[in-house]
Amino acid sequence: MSETMKQVVLARYCEGTPVPEDFRVEEKPLPEPREGQFRVAHAFNSVDPGTRSRLSGGDSYAAALPLGKAIDGFSVGTVDASANEAFPVGTKVFCAGGWKTHSIQTGKGFIGKLPDVPGIPLSLWIGVLGVPGLTAWFGLKRVGEFRKEMNVLVTSAAGPVGATAGQLAKAWGAARVVGVAGSDAKCDWLKDTAGFDAAINYKTAPDLAAALAEAMPGGVDLLFDNVGNAMVNRVLPMMNMGGRIVVSGQVADYNLAPEDTPGIRNTKPFITHRVRMEGLVVFDDAREFPEALDGMARMIADGQLKYAEERFEGLEAMPEAFCGLFHGENFGRRVVKVGAE
After folding, report:
1. Whole-angstrom distance, CA of residue 203 vs CA of residue 240
2. 222: part of which helix (H) or strand (E)?
């Protein structure tokens, strides 16, 4: 076994849209676990658009990442050295491992042993069965207060969060689920594979507001938004009485300076229609993760929950995979294979 590991660190603060030159690959000695610790050899790492909020030197809901530090991310892999009897060598786990080939863990925080559900690819535990799927589950259930017969609109719907949210809504009894995505191929997948009732290509719709109104003739009961303020502002006039807006992500706003971020002007429905808008950080629901993961894993095994995945090869590909998220290149969850499955 190699005596070194690799990691991707922040080489300079990102200004605007991230570029691969903002990152640097480093090699360092392979760390040995101390008492109570164990080492995970990563098989797959994720790239997540929410990571962008930590890369400009200013704090958001999480502290800014210092220069020279490894980038945050989620990983799935196998324990290859252990001084923790609860996680012996050979245990397969998902964890917050970062953009690395190996990580040292203590068993606390975001980490878990993989449930024994046959037929689930390893990479899914940082995809639809990782933070994206959990965000969809708890965004709908807790924040969106999902009820049967709701009309649900999902933005960035071909991404792993949006696609999962739409499918869960359908499975749980939504009256209508409409997705917004950035290509005809994505829209076709949402309708033909994921089971959405309709999908809108925002890049080709001559009048997006009119297209949304046509696709949602009964109005919107629940907006599951992954895009940002401009989209929320556009949909607010369509919200039904008691409507709920789940702020899951803001991919269109992450690269904007605060003074350039669009405002929300159509605020009257908050009063007249008792609309509520709320964001979420899914780790607030950590105690309920096992139930959600078990439910979604069984839906995948039964063919009820579909997913799309893009795989990149090698740790060195992580900056490219991450930066492409902000150009609409991705179709589904992006993961990077950094070690043996």
Report:
1. 26
2. strand 220-225
Query: What is the Cα–Cα distance from 65 to 10, expressed in whole angstroms?
Result: 8
Domain positions in the chain are: 4-127+308-337, 131-282
Q: Return d(Cα 340, Cα 99) in angstroms, integer.
A: 16
- Per-residue confidence (pLDDT) for residue 1, from 0 to 100: 57
Structure tokens at 76: 């799935």
Q: What is the b/e burial string over 218-246, where b = at least 16 CB atoms within 10 angstroms of the residue's CB?
A: ebbbbbbbbbbbbbbebbbebbbeebbbb
- Judge if 4-127+308-337 and 131-282 fold alike in CATH terms: no
CA atoms of 177 and 165, how far apart (whole Å): 10
> Tokens representing 316?
């060195």
176, 197 in Cβ contact below 8 A? Answer: yes
Q: Copy the structure tokens of residue 289.
A: 């993760």
The residue type found at 228 is G
The pLDDT confidence band at residue 59, using thresholds 50, 70 and 90, is low
Q: Quote the CA–CA distance of 87 and 78 in Å, as a whole number.
A: 10
Please state the rounded mean pLDDT for residues 182-200.
97
The CATH number for 4-127+308-337, chosen from 3.30.450.70, 3.40.50.1820, 2.20.25.90, 3.90.180.10, is 3.90.180.10
Question: What's the token pair of residue 103?
Answer: 């990580």
Burial class (CB in 10 A: 0-12, 13-18, 19+), 140: buried
For 226-275, list the strands marked E by DSSP.
Answer: 239-247
Residue 260's pLDDT is what?
A: 86
Yes or no: domain 131-282 corresponds to CATH 1.20.120.790 = no
Q: How far apart are the first and last CA of the chain?
A: 15
